[in-house]
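Sample log: CopG family transcriptional regulator.
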Amino acid sequence: MAKELTLQDSRPRAGETEKVTINLGLVDLGQIDLLVQEGFYSNRTDLIRTAIRNQLQLHGDVIKQTVARKSLVLGLQHYSRADLEAVRDAGQKLQIQVLGLAGIDADVTPELALTTIDSITVLGALHASAAVKAALAGRIH
């Protein structure tokens, strides 16, 4: 039987965080609790966050190479209404590719998004209004 564990990073950060839910076997969860009880980690989340960071560091070269090969923006990419209006006025379309967070302002209309955004690939999170996400559903990969 697996137990569901919800992680949420409560430390203040420059960017936003996302909640991740994972299922763990009871033995794994017990071992985590033992390490917390013995003082190796302050809580479950601290251990799991550390384990994830260690794995990301271990694979850091692969991540960097893939980001470069796929021409991904690493971090935060933000689009305001003015940004998209400028793209529209220039007769261009965007191919948004982000590893991290892509954000589209709440005042961007679905029509403006459809006119200016050809495709969206986000490895991480996309923050946009429900209406814009619905309009772009077929263009989000």
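Observation: DSSP finds six helices and five strands in the chain.
Observation: The two ends are 33 Å apart (CA to CA).
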